[in-house]
Specification:
The chain contains two helices and four strands, in the order αβββαβ. With 84 residues, the chain is α+β, with helices and mostly antiparallel strands. It has one domain. It has a four-stranded mixed beta sheet, with no helix packed on it. Strand 2 and strand 3 form a beta hairpin. The longest helix is centred in the N-terminal third of the chain and has 7 residues. The structure holds zinc ion. The site of zinc ion has 8 residues, from loops.
Length: 84
């Protein structure tokens, strides 16, 4: 089970103003994972699906779940947007 800590709430490497201006929006679908609703999207950089808690929808940019150090999402994180 994943626990979101205060430390993870803001991506490292960028200040708040830069994050607000540059964090991209990723469009997510809602899925059930291990019995819980989660948001999921296929990351164009990692070519893997990343999962996030739906509670992160309205809380600003979320840290990237990327596996590749080259992913630009690491710097700013990204905003989650749910597709209906
Ligand atoms: Zn990724």
């Amino acid at each position: 089970m994943t626990t979101i800590t205060e430390q993870q709430n803001r991506p490292a490497g960028a200040d708040a103003a830069e994050i607000e201006q540059t964090a991209p929006v990723v469009r997510c679908g809602r899925v059930i994972q291990a019995g819980r609703p989660m948001l999921a999207f296929l990351c164009q950089h990692c070519e893997r699906v990343h999962f996030h808690d739906p509670q992160r929808l309205d809380t600003g940019p979320t840290p990237a779940r990327c596996h590749l150090p080259s992913s630009p999402y690491f710097r700013t994180g990204y905003f989650l947007e749910e597709t209906k």
